[in-house]
Amino acid sequence: MKKSFIGTLKSKRTVIRIISLVLFVSVISFVLYQGSKKNVTFDANGETIEVTTHAKTVEQLLHDQNIDVAKHDKISPPLTTKIVNGLAISWEQAKEVTISVDGNRLKVWTTETHVKDILKEANIEVSEHDSLAPGLDTEIGADNRIDIQKAFQVSLVDGVNERQVWSTSTTVANFLKQQGIQLNEFDRVENNLKDVITPQKKITVVRVEKVIDVVEDSLDFTIEKKQDASLQEGKQQVVTAGQKGLMTKTYEIIKENGQVVAKNLQSEKVVKEPQNQVVAVGTKTIVPSVTSVPSNASTASIPSVPNIANTSNISLGLTEPASGHEFYVTATAYTAYCKGCSGTSATGIDLRSNPELKVIAVDPSVIKLGSKVWVEGYGIAVAADTGGAIKGNKIDIFVQSETQAINWGVKNVRIKILN
Q1: Of 221, 283, 287, 313, which sees the most CB atoms within 10 A?
Q2: By C-alpha distance, which of 262, 213, 218 is closest to 244?
């Protein structure tokens, strides 16, 4: 039995030795296996890890890490690069970005993260006037979208000033806000504020100003005439001088771009009432001295002057009568001492003895002799003379001197036949 126990003990020791040998070999093998691995640095989308691997190439390493490299991804160094200790591997996964330019969409694959780098890679240029979201120096948003509105020039007329400015497709209201245009209470924009601006459009701002202006205006006085029997007929004399009154008028002045376009009367106020002017009008008549008709004259063909002494047929007055048969004639002037003149009218009036009388020579077929006639610029006269050159609508007025006749000249005047 002792022999049997010793044999068993030897058998166990053998087994233990075998197991120990296997473990030793395994440990040595594991150590040798682990020691044969290579250490590399792996950067995946900005996250860095340390990796030990038996992979022979970069491609095999990525496969062992369950990483699929897409067409647009960036891998460095190339997939065929052999793995060596200390190798640094970088992998950037590409993403799809939508770029919208004035509503036209373009999809690109990129590994860039900043907007300016993405646009540069896509060969898209933007100017300082373009509208861009997000901004050039920012990172692409979670929606992977870039919106660009290309700027164009439009005309901005602000009052009297016009200039060319850059704009994008925005509304007129937003455009004015972008340009810092402030509208006052009465200003107006010729365009619809909701309209979308297009290239070459003209935006017009009219500057409207309303001001109050008070001006002074004179009030004319009324001329009041009173008859005066002590004053020679035709003469006038100012008794009381007239004085003009004063009125203030308040206007609302509307200006557009500095130019007055409307002037609206708001109110009137009389500050000073005018004072009437009183004028005395003479009514005293002069009785002319009438000589007898010459013996060689035909009394049947020459009518007498009716009631000269008792009427105002021969007058110095220039005041125009209210009624009468009115028409125009050509008027010349003559004196009692003209060449070939006898000094006596065709109706027998001694003109040389009565130089102050108002007498006219007429064509009896147009104006009857003895008629009372008002002549513009001469006064009321009697048609008491004729003349060889006085035919039709023509008269010759009697004046005191040759100088007066020359000064009168030839005039086209208005007359009124009063009887």
Answers
A1: 313
A2: 218
